[in-house]
Amino acid sequence: MINNILSNTKSIKKTKSFLDNGKDWITSIKNKNNNAVNRRDINESATKFFEELFKSRKEIKDDNTSMADSYSKLNTVTLFTKTDIEQAIDDLKTDKCTGNDGIVTEMLKYGKQPISTVFTMIFNDILITQQIPKRRKQATITHIHIKGNKDDINNYRPISNISMIYKLFSKVMYTKIKDTLNRNQPREQAGFREGFSTTDHLQTMNQLIEKTNEFEKPIQETKLGQ
Fold first, then answer.
1. Which residues of 151-169 are buried (b: 16+ CB within 10 A; e: fewer)?
2. Strands 139-145, 156-162: parallel, antiparallel or unpaired by DSSP?
3. Model confidence at 117: pLDDT above 90
4. What is the DSSP letter of 215?
């Protein structure tokens, strides 16, 4: 680990800081009733808190689309190839945390040739059946303290470590659909898009403000989101 940090940061000071900080166990968490002080109660309190926080309050209506209609649409979908899987494995980053399957990126890279054939069949089966194994959707969640009182669950941010195989499937799927997604995105959508930057929008806004001030024209600005 130390060698990896030194090679990546080229800094002894940063390496020492990383080793000194480490990760602290959460010793207690405040909930609605009292303080949770053992591991089981802490996990239950944190789970309930974030489930409620991220729970969708929007009613989802069934469009009554039959499975037959769904399968008919798959006739236009190109299945994954072994080359797709191999390219996705090459693009995976190393030195990353494992999910609940205990598989690290290096395992996939060293065994790329034999396992890419197996993953091609598995991923195509998921694509055709539209069913992802439940275990692949499970994640190991780590709570990172952001600020303030460490006993307050509101001051933590959850980080999910998902299965490495699920990461691989997500990468292959994204590569397949990203061109279609980009073609159907408006030019106004600059955030989180390859080849786009919100800096261009900010520059446009600055120029509008400068010109309206220069010619003493009124300007109205509307901000959406948070």
1. eebeebebeeebbbbbbbb
2. antiparallel
3. yes
4. T
Spell out the SS3 assignment of 106-165.
HHHHHCHHHHHHHHHHHHHHHHHHCCCCHHHHCEEEEEEECCCCCCEHHHEEEEEEECHH
The rounded distance, in Å, linking the Cα atoms of 165 and 3 is: 27
Q: So where are the chain's domains? A: 1-55, 66-148+158-183, 186-214
Check residue 54 and give its pLDDT: 75
For residue 157, what are the contacts with CB-CB under 8 A and spacing of at least 6? 143, 144, 146
Distance in angstroms (rounded) separating the CA atoms of residues 154 and 64: 39
> Could you tell me which residues are beta bridge partners of residue 139?
162
pLDDT digits (tens, 9 = 90+) for 126-153: 988 888 888 887 888 888 888 888 888 8
Using CA atoms, how far residue 145 sits from 45, 154, 226, in Å, is 16, 9, 22
Q: Are 68 and 74 in contact (CB under 8 A)?
A: no
| Alpha carbon distance, N-terminus to C-terminus of the chain | 38
Alpha carbon distance 11, 32 (integer Å):
44
Q: Which two tokens stand for residue 4?
A: 């990896």
Mean pLDDT of the chain: 78
- Tokens 């002080």 correspond to what residue? 37
The closest alpha carbon to 172, from 108, 75, 73, 80, belongs to 80
**pLDDT for residue 118:** 94
